[in-house]
Design a protein that fits this description.
The chain has about 140 residues and is of the alpha+beta class. Helix content is about 25%, strand content about 35%. The chain is built from 2 helices and 10 strands. The strands form 2 sheets. Strands 2-1-9-8-5 form a 5-stranded mixed beta sheet, with no helix packed on it. A 5-stranded antiparallel beta sheet has the order 4-3-6-7-10. A hairpin with a 2-residue loop joins strand 3 and strand 4 (about 30-35). Helix 1 runs antiparallel to helix 2 (about 120-140). The relative contact order is 0.18. The protein binds adenosine-5'-triphosphate (ATP).
Length: about 140
């Protein structure tokens, strides 16, 4: 089975470094599936749960939360430079649920035009919401969206 080296790096550590058979990411241009020997590519990543296959099967897919950043692909290596990234075991689900609720409350207040709506940075809240969703998706948490 052909494999390719995947390295996911956050500002403070190497989050993941393994030989993998396929990676599925959400780039700024849409979803991308990367196989070994892929053509060289550089793209931005949006907050999401990356899917990593270590063997040929989708049954053993691993999920990794990525808050955003860049991905560089060469035929031999995939490098993800993430603003933050976590493996499911390192994700604090309670913290992610709180971040989700906080962001949702801000977005709702902005749209309802509450008295302090003018002070709400709605784009920032939307990004925070997407980071929280990425973390909850990576841990396969069922929650009230
Ligand atoms: P919060 O509002 O809870 O801080 P955030 O989305 O603003 O969430 P980030 O700025 O993306 O947080 O990340 C800051 C640091 O905290 C990073 O090192 C990231 O890995 C870590 N982090 C954020 N949320 C979680 C979580 N739910 N579980 C584990 N680590 C987390």
């Amino acid at each position: 089975m052909a494999t390719i080296k995947l390295e996911i790096v956050s500002p403070d550590k190497v989050v993941y470094s393994e030989d993998v058979s396929m990676v599925i990411v959400r780039s700024t241009g849409g979803e991308l599936g990367i196989l070994p020997h892929h053509a060289p590519l550089v793209t931005g990543l949006v907050p999401h749960a990356m899917r990593v296959r270590v063997s040929g099967s989708d049954r053993d897919e691993q999920l990794i939360a990525v808050a955003g950043g860049f991905m560089e692909v060469t035929p031999e290596k995939i490098t993800v430079l993430a603003t933050a990234a976590e493996q499911p075991i390192d994700i604090d689900i309670n913290r992610a649920q709180k971040a989700y609720a906080r962001a949702k409350e801000r977005i709702d207040a902005f749209h309802q035009g509450t008295p302090d709506a003018k002070d709400i940075d709605v784009e920032r809240a939307q990004l925070a919401l997407r980071r929280a969703i990425a973390r909850l998706d990576a841990t396969e948490t069922e929650w009230d969206r």
